[in-house]
Amino acid sequence: MSDPTSRPRRGQKLEVPIVELDERGRGVARVGRWSLVARGALPGSRVRLEVLRGRGARHEARVLEVLEPSPDGGPAHCPHLRHCGGCAFQELAYPAQLRALRGAVEALVDPLGLGVPVEEVAGMQRPFAYRNKMEYTFGTRRFREDPSERGAPADFALGLHVPGRHEKVIDVQHCAIHFEGADELLAGMRDLCLERGLSAWDNRRHTGLLRYLVLRHGFRTGETLVNLVTSAEAEEEVDALAAAFLERHPQVTTFVHSVQSRPAATSQAEHQRVLHGSGRIHERVGQLLYGISAGSFFQTNTLQAERLFAAIAEEARVAGGTLYDLYCGAGTIGLALAAEAGLVRGFEVVPSAVRDARANARENGIENAEFIEGDVLASLAREGGAGSPDVVIVDPPRAGLEARMIPALARLGAPRLIYVSCNVAAAAGDLPYLRAAGYRLERVRPFDLFPHTPHVEVIFTLVK
Ligand SMILES: C[S@@+](CC[C@H](N)C(=O)[O-])C[C@H]1O[C@@H](n2cnc3c(N)ncnc32)[C@H](O)[C@@H]1O
User: Fold this and answer.
1) Whose CA is nearest to atom 27 of ligand 1?
2) Is the CB of 329 inside a 6 Å radius of any atom of ligand 1?
3) Is the Cβ–Cβ distance between 186 and 158 less than 8 Å?
4) CB atoms within 10 A of CB 404
5) How far apart are CA 1 and CA 387, in angstroms?
């Protein structure tokens, strides 16, 4: 049993109740003033933990045994759940996941004392097979999930990294959250690469050809994009592989080959060739059809993106005014609101996303939207505050807003500011500064765009 007065020691075994989830979806137990966090430990359960390591008041632990299961526990839908870091709490019943996500947002927003309640998290009816994009990694060190298994080659894997062991790759056979049909594409690519003796990228030695397999799918259009990222041109091998793959999987509408020779772990390409189709797929969200190319950001959960965009439209109340869509990606949010706006101006740094945004406006017959390519701060500074938008939407990348964006937003001075965030901690950190810049928080609406993960998307509505 645990002694609440002594600090947990490495190797110590404790029997404790799990009281909540942390921001990474790990179960938390309290021992005196210390917390123990363990992957896969569900709130409401009682477990035997082994302390692994500690820093300050928080210690990492692993579950040795579940003594009493959580009343909120449910069946897992994934064979890789124990080792893959993707779905931190798939075994927690979905309503309990939504409660935990809301609690996590409250823990960040309530202490700010802004007097605005965090609303219920808008969840999915069927929270599986929801991702329209997955990025799989090739690796030379296959993670053995079952130590007794025999047969599969140890030096080739296509799947996902094991958290904390970046050189190891789980050979994913089934994923419960990627789009239906992606399992077959993954297996087909793996089989063909092995048949042809093509080498996987070794992320320690920086050798080998195959680096990433990115799959994208339009839920509403049925179109599928395959982007194979390699470390070198190797046109002959790649062309033959693509031809064989397309023959086996004729449902694939476009095949892109990207080259990324630098060691950095990113699927962003130095250059690209389109081997089949147009190099883009389309997805319908709400009334609009969006074109998406291999390198552009697009919301990964089509069904929830639709609800998110509808809620953003409600909050923005554009009513014929000028809307700035900062960090606009392929223009999705601004274009969704264009029918209600006098003018939409999107700002985005990735050139292919800007090209997609312009094409999306054109293909949807939208004439009141323009897109400005470049760093958003530099673009706004160049304009010297011109434009005076009625509504500004900011949807920054995970890292959050740069500090200099707060004064830039203050200078724009829009009466309504809609801050869309996938990193609530970063956004919550900005709220006091936005209050100092004259913005009052009006609503906090969380959306579950990433079921079974600790990530949550939040719309913060701010008014001047
Ligand atoms: C979270 S995504 C939002 C995209 C879009 N609002 C949507 O919903 O599809 C963030 C976008 O910000 C862009 N971005 C990142 N840093 C930027 C910067 N400094 N200036 C302009 N855009 C940037 C990224 O390329 C990405 O498209």
Assistant:
1) 329
2) yes
3) yes
4) 11
5) 65
**Rounded Cα–Cα distance for residues 372 and 346 (Å):** 6
Q: Measured from the CB, is residue 153 less than 6 Å from ligand 1?
A: no
Bridge partners (DSSP) listed for residue 30: 35
Instruction: Specify whether 422 is catalytic.
Output: yes
CA–CA distance, 267 with 348 (Å, rounded to integer): 19
Annotated catalytic residue within 78, 84, 193, 422: 422
> Of 248, 252, 241, whose CA–CA distance to 294 is shortest?
252
Q: What is the tens place of the pLDDT at every residue in 223-259?
A: 999 999 999 999 999 999 999 999 999 999 999 999 9
Query: Do 316 and 337 touch, CB atoms closer than 8 A?
Result: yes
CB of 457 within 6 A of ligand 1: the answer is: no
Between CA 203 and CA 157 the distance in angstroms is 13
Closest ligand 1 atom, CA of 309? 8
Q: With cut-offs at 50, 70 and 90, classify the pLDDT of residue 267.
A: low
Task: Give 276-328 pLDDT, tens digit per residue.
Answer: 999 999 999 999 999 988 888 889 999 999 999 999 999 999 999 999 999 99
330 touches 297 (CB < 8 A): yes
Does the predicted model carry a pTM greater than 0.70? yes
Q: Mark 414-441 as b/e (b = at least 16 C-beta within 10 Å).
A: bebbbbbbbbbebbbebbebbeebebeb
Instruction: Report pLDDT for 48.
Output: 96
Walk me through the domains of the chain, giving residue ranges and CATH numbers.
13-68 (2.40.50.140), 106-125+295-463 (3.40.50.150), 133-284 (2.40.50.1070)
Distance separating alpha carbons of residues 35 and 54, to the nearest angstrom: 9
- Identify the pLDDT of residue 85: 78
State the pLDDT at residue 384: 67
Residues 15, 17: Cα–Cα separation, whole Å? 7
- CA dihedral 263→265→268→271, nearest 10 degrees, is 20
From 285, 297, 304, mutation site for ligand 1 pocket: most ligand atoms within 8 A of C-beta: 297
Cβ atoms of 424 and 393 closer than 8 Å: no
CA 6 – CA 306 distance, rounded (Å): 50
Check if 348 has its Cβ closer than 6 Å to any atom of ligand 1: yes
Half-sphere exposure of 262 (CA within 13 A, CB side): 8
State yes or no: pLDDT of 2 exceeds 80: no
Residues belonging to the chain: 464
pLDDT for 74 beyond 70? yes
Q: How far is the CA of 262 from the centre of ligand 1 (A)?
A: 23
Closest atom of ligand 1 relative to the 347 alpha carbon:
21
